[in-house]
Specification:
By secondary structure, this protein is mainly alpha-helical. The chain is built from ten helices and no strands. It has helices spanning 17-37, 43-50, 54-60, 64-88, 92-109, 111-118, 125-147, 160-174, 181-193, 208-218.
Amino acid sequence: MPHQPMTTTPPGKPLRRDAQRNRDALLAAARGAFAEEGLEASLEGIARQAGVAIGTLYRHFPTRIALVEELFAEKFQEWIAAGEQALAMDDAWQGFCSYLEKFCELQARDRAFNDLASMRLPTEALTEQVRDRSYDLACEIFAKAQEQGSLRADATPEDIAFLIWSQARIIQATRTIAPNAWRRHLSLMLDAFRADKALPLAEPPMTPDEVFRAMSTLGGSCTE
């Protein structure tokens, strides 16, 4: 999935030294603010921490989403790499567990990524490319584990949304009290996906469209 981080600077036109310094300062300030406060971190606060005016921030990053995409391009690639590595494992159950553990680690390390994991935003192309690729990988990982008989046959890739949503709240609630509590919850949830533990489910699975609409609802307050 070749792509480059979105940027407002025309290709081939380097920034002036002072503009590049401001951009770097904004990214450093945003990295810390988003990690601690989540996607709704104050843009005015980020600009102030970087030592620039809010207008300077908007000249470099016209929207919050443009800043998020620039900042999280590397983590998005970690997400994709984890899925590709999981899919390559011979033992599909181990691949499934490895993928979810890596995803939850990314959630736990950064509040903004934790926010991104559980919602959809009005985004630029990069984030949608990542989500599309990650969904395709999740489907392939799911299918491989079901073919090997280790993952319950009545589960669907959309069921991963339940795990991500619940982990997002658990990580948020325990991050300063018991920062590894999410690992216990993940272990409990993985047992629920095992074929040899399966009991009939009370409800049919959500459709991809239902999951999309639910995540869009969660992301409604982070659109500035």
